[in-house]
Amino acid sequence: MAEDLIDREVIVLQEMEARRVGDGIRELRLRCGLSVEELARRANVSHDYLIRLEEGHELKVTRSVLDNLRQVSSPGG
């Protein structure tokens, strides 16, 4: 039960933080040679949501989404 709450934990970002997170996601995606569409598919998020994250327009994100993005962008992910 506690793990479910952690997985759905919503992180609320300030605008500057959202831009930094977005820049980091984009950098990781490009370094892995993935398109937005491919990373979104692998991370099980919508294409539009991933674009909003990368552009720093999405101020709320769950920890599980960030973990999914990190996992599928890592070698062997």
Task: Report the mean per-residue pLDDT as an integer.
Answer: 88
At CATH level 2, the architecture is: Orthogonal Bundle
β-strand amount = 5-15%
The CATH class label is Mainly Alpha
Order of H and E elements: HEHHHEH
Number of helices: 5
Q: Mind summarizing the main beta sheet?
A: 2 strands, antiparallel
User: First CA to last CA: what distance?
Assistant: 26 Å
CATH level-4 homologous superfamily? lambda repressor-like DNA-binding domains
* DSSP E strands, number: 2
How do the strands of the widest beta sheet line up side by side? 1-2
Radius of gyration: 12 Å
Question: What can you see in these coordinates?
Answer:
The protein is mostly helical and 77 residues long. The chain has one domain: 434 Repressor (Amino-terminal Domain). It is built from 5 helices and 2 strands. It has helices at 2-7, 15-31, 36-43, 47-54, 63-73, and strands spanning 10-12, 60-62. A two-stranded antiparallel ribbon has the order 1-2. Helix 3 (36-43) crosses helix 4 (47-54) and helix 3 packs across helix 5. The longest helix has 17 residues, at 15-31. The chain starts with a helix and ends with a helix.
